[in-house]
Amino acid sequence: MDVRSQIAMVFHLDKCIGCHTCSVACKNIWTDRKGAEYMWWNNVETKPGTGYPTKWENQDIYKGGWVKKGKSIELRGAGKKIGMTNLFHNPNMPEMNDYYEPWAYDYDHLFEAPEGKDQPTARTISLVTGKPMDVKGGPNWDDDLSGTPDYARNDVNFKNISAEEQEAMFQLEKMTFSYLPRMCNHCLNPACVAACPSGAVYKRGEDGVVLINQEKCRGWRMCVTACPYKKTYYNWSSGKSEKCLLCFPRLESGQAPACMHSCVGRIRYLGVLLYDADKIKEIASASENELIDKQLEIYLNPFDANVIKEAKENGIGDSTIDAAQKSPIYKFVKEWKLALPLHAEFRTMSSLFYVPPMLPVMGNKSGELYDTTTKNLWGKIEDSRLPIQYLANLFSAGNQDKIKEILKKMMAVRYHRRQVTVNDIDEAIINEAFDKTGLSKEVADDIFRLTSLAKFDERFVIPAAHREEAIEMLQSTDDHKGNAGFGFNNGVRRVF
Fold first, then answer.
1. Of 129, 172, 181, 362, which is most buried, counting CB atoms within 10 Å of its CB?
2. Which residues fall within 8 angstroms of residue 394, CB to CB, at 6 or more apart?
3. 335 by DSSP, 3-state: which?
4. Nearest to 230 by CA among 355, 486, 35, 59
5. pTM, two decimal places
6. Domains and CATH numbers, the chain
7. Cα–Cα dist 200/316, whole Å
């Protein structure tokens, strides 16, 4: 057992209000400069929708992530063989138009225009070419436009949902959408690390943060192709690739990343998970219907005496183990089983998990009608306006049962808390919900507290930095545990 520590995150989508404060905070700190204008290391998408860059989830277009080959896996659109043929011409690389061409406004033309009969305007000027341009897209171009023919209906997650279900959902009176904040997932099996010909992309040994060494980067952009979430970007000014670095200077000083610190809805949680690195290849190569369960198996119980012993022998500090025991991520992912990774079928083993969204509580679906005048505060999960299969395509590799299980747990918590505060729910309904989900009143209260009332230090459990141990891991030549994270072994990259 090779115990490692990983900084992991949970985004609670039932709380996201789509304010984009997280994106603006990240933009102001990291990408407000030449060559990075089009980059949004953190962005918030409307779902259903095509996202940023356009149709990033469609790997038939972008060839990102891993694909199962026999008993192992290989990169879908990068790696040694494909990478060499695509080194100077990569047809699967997203273009500027797939993101958007960034622009500013020519305010001189507005303020200094001569007197005339027409109202002067501030013309849009490309930040790439410096020439006037017509704006045709942006990083949030389809915000709040779920249900439109151009965006929602082109969402690739509708691939196995019947046309009748889609049409029923897209009728105006039934239109629904939710928000999906995205950032680098700092995966356990990052495709970007394996794809980089220069060895510039690496995973830190002490906390699992994936970074790009700007001195080693040669701008091959294989990492851009390999990342299935399209969260690695090319700086057209510097000629280097860049990505979210999880605000590691802030983490090392005990502060939450900027996007998380600024989150208005308090949807974001950060903590430590301990995992067994020896199982990564086995789990990443599992069949698609086993991927979710297998990934959850890799995370270890931080209270287990044997896990603690192995962790200490592997150089993990007491403060990190203590942080893992207090981690909100462990509770959401392992204890309560409320959070799932986004698109596990990409096989990167994401360290970012999502609590799926629930629809508005009032309403009931009856045949072709959706009735919001019902006296029943909560309808059945199966009668949701948004097809369960759609959420399953996003978060559970197509398995509807896992989504239903989570939504029923969330509903049980709502029943219980409604009874506590208003006392108008039949006790039999609550008991039935608890019996079906395996929850208790005590656990429901714990879920409610961490979801709704948690203070800052409960949502963000950040371990003390141990750079001295990370340096020892890099310099170690005694055994195979001297790794700079998964994918590196005594200075040699390990690619499956």
1. 181
2. 47, 157, 180, 342, 343, 354, 356
3. helix
4. 59
5. 0.91
6. 265-465 (3.30.70)
7. 25
